[in-house]
Write a structure and sequence with these properties.
Elements: H1 9-16, H2 18-27, H3 35-51, H4 57-65, H5 77-94, H6 97-118, H7 128-143, H8 148-280, E1 312-314, H9 321-329, H10 335-341, E2 357-359
Antiparallel strand pairs: 1-2
Length: 361
């Protein structure tokens, strides 16, 4: 909307005097009418300005300025036409179309009122006066670009502008729509890409966790199997050693038993021989004969290792307590004596180790 404040000072100065230039255009040819004519025109202009009704702010500002208009009878018709043409150009180029049409309507109303009031022949100018004023009024329309052709041209221009604006608006809306769709599509693609990346990351994380879990389980299983294998091997070894020790102990006991039985048998045989000799000895006196000389020979029977030679025995591979007792005492059954004397280093009598140094009591 155009107002006084939206126009330059020179533009407003031209527009605010527009009613006077219309009046000057229509009255310039009556300049010789005298003071009565001038008063008549002043009265007509005052009446039009006071009675004109409008809601347009720009027209109201022009009316406010022209509350006490001054008519300059010295203005020529050409001068007035030039001013109106300038006003018409101003309305065309610098004033919004609705405001420009309101100003044109206002100025033409002034011209029409003058044509009606002065065309009655009140001053004895004859019937040709109305034709003259009508022609001048047409000139005012032309100057203000308010003819039917001008109106049609403005309507056509407005329509073209509206169509162009509508086309531009449609193109802009289409562009915005296209941009919005492209943006939405890009956002959707970005969202899908983000979701796909998040999904891939999650799957990779789960896969990594599964692999780590499987690896941990496999390592735990392998460690458990190794532990069980080690325990089984240790158990088997312990059982084998215990079995071997038990077998060795039984063997030693069997050997000791067999030896004891053999010794008992030999002792019984010796006692039986001695008894038999005693039973067969003659009771008659026999001349005492000189005993025969018998060569003394050392005993060939094996003798046990003398214990007094060394009181420490170092265990050799294959030794057992009964074997050592047989060796040092000549009696395998005395092994408990060695065991009792070495309890500080022998926990199991069936388990002794090569290199151990045993005290021999």
């Amino acid at each position: 909307m155009t107002t006084k404040s939206t126009l330059k000072q020179a533009e407003w100065d031209l527009l605010k005097t527009s009613p006077q230039w219309v009046e000057a255009m229509l009255t310039s040819y009556r300049a010789g009418g005298g003071g009565l004519v001038g008063k008549r025109y002043q009265h007509i202009l005052d009446k039009v300005l006071s009675e004109y009704k409008t809601t347009n702010p720009l027209v109201k500002e022009v009316l406010d300025y022209n509350e006490d208009p001054k008519i300059d009878s010295a203005t020529t018709q050409d001068q007035a036409r030039q001013k109106l043409e300038q006003i018409g150009s101003l309305l065309e180029k610098k004033v919004d179309p609705p405001d420009a049409d309101a100003i044109r309507e206002f100025l033409l109303a002034i011209g029409q009122k003058f044509a009606e009031e002065t065309g009655e022949g009140l001053f004895g100018l004859g019937s040709d006066v109305s034709k003259k004023e009508i022609a001048i009024l047409d000139s005012v329309r032309t100057a203000l670009k308010a003819t039917d052709a001008d109106k049609q041209q403005r309507a056509d221009d407005a329509k073209a502008r509206a169509e162009a604006e509508a086309k531009t608006k449609a193109a802009e809306e289409a562009r915005k729509k296209q941009e919005a769709e492209a943006k939405a599509k890009a956002a959707e693609e970005a969202r899908k890409k983000q979701e796909a990346e998040a999904k891939a990351t999650e799957e990779a994380r789960k896969k990594q966790e599964a692999e780590a879990k499987a690896k941990a389980e496999a390592e735990a299983k392998a460690a458990e199997e190794a532990r069980k294998k080690q325990e089984a091997e240790a158990k088997a070894k312990a059982e084998a050693e215990a079995k071997a020790a038990e077998e060795a102990r039984k063997k030693q006991e069997a050997e000791a038993k067999a030896k004891a039985e053999a010794e008992a048998k030999a002792k019984a045989a010796e006692e039986a021989r001695k008894k038999q000799e005693a039973d067969t000895k003659p009771t008659m006196a026999v001349p005492k004969a000189e005993p025969a000389k018998v060569e003394s020979k050392p005993a060939t029977a094996p003798t046990p290792v003398q214990a007094t030679a060394a009181r420490i025995y170092e265990v050799k591979p294959g030794d057992s307590l009964s074997k050592i007792a047989l060796e040092v005492y000549g009696n395998a059954g005395r092994w408990p004596e060695i065991f009792e004397a070495n309890k500080d280093q022998i926990k199991n009598p069936n388990l002794i180790h090569p290199g151990q140094k045993l005290r021999i009591p």
